[in-house]
Amino acid sequence: MFVQCPAVSPFEWHPFSITSAPGDHYLSVHIRQLGDWTQELKRVFSEACEAPVAGKSGLLRADETTKKSLPKLLIDGPYGAPAQDYRKYDVLLLVGLGIGATPFISILKDLLNDIVKVEDSNTGTSRTADNCAGTNESCSANKISPKRRKSLKTTNAYFYWVTREQGSFDWFKGIMNEVADLDLQGVIEMHNYLTSVYEEGDARSALIAMVQALNHAKNGVDVVSGTKVRTHFARPNWKKVFSRTCSKHPNSKIGVFYCGAPVLAKELAKLCQEFSHKGSTKFEFHKEHF
Question: Which parts of the chain are coiled coil (predicted)?
Fold first, then answer.
């Protein structure tokens, strides 16, 4: 959707990927500071928002309880996106570079809402990810009912997020932890890759990996990302990723969705063709550049 903030510029409209799911009761976008308009937007909202809580992430927050008035925002949309047809595939392979992860956060949230929804035929009640996450009760009863499984074509989703900046993991910390907590059947598999750290095999990265493993075993939290999702170093071996997906899902129709710089798009498109021709698993490629 397009967003305009009259306090920044009464004429400029900027496009952003929607990161809330279709079933959410709110609309959200994630905006990265890259130019004059986004930097000014951050400044305008910083003045109206609450200061970050000590020890918490640096995200600024404001809602209807905030005393100060918030800057006005105008929105135009929603518009179509390359990733909007994800529900027609058996398996999803989602690849995001940096802020290119944004279109896939909406997809993961939508899948999560489906996965944890319990449809009790006796009582007609249902429980969603939101109200389950807001209680202390166990969510172990969350299973996809046979009725729900029939309507949900997608059986598995693999999300690969590649970023150079460790701080980027703060952007989607909430949804990553939510998936780790509530996806008890392992439908969604998440992989974080940090490319600015030492290459895999370097003694320093081996040391960090050791600390990672110890902390994850003890506290269930990754020391690099601050989430329950383990972080890998260097870049993914995409040929291995495709090969593993092929062997796991024979005779499946797999949707490969990519958002990021054009360079990797060529490699992923080529791998889709290569693996589709030599096996029973078929890959369809969709790309979006930012």
Answer: none
Q: Is 35 exposed, middle or buried (0-12, 13-18, 19+ CB in 10 A)?
A: exposed
Q: Residue 201: its pLDDT value, please?
A: 54
Query: Tokens at residue 140, please?
Result: 């172990």
Q: Does residue 17 contact residue 81 with C-beta atoms inside 8 Å? A: yes
Amino acid 146: pLDDT: 45
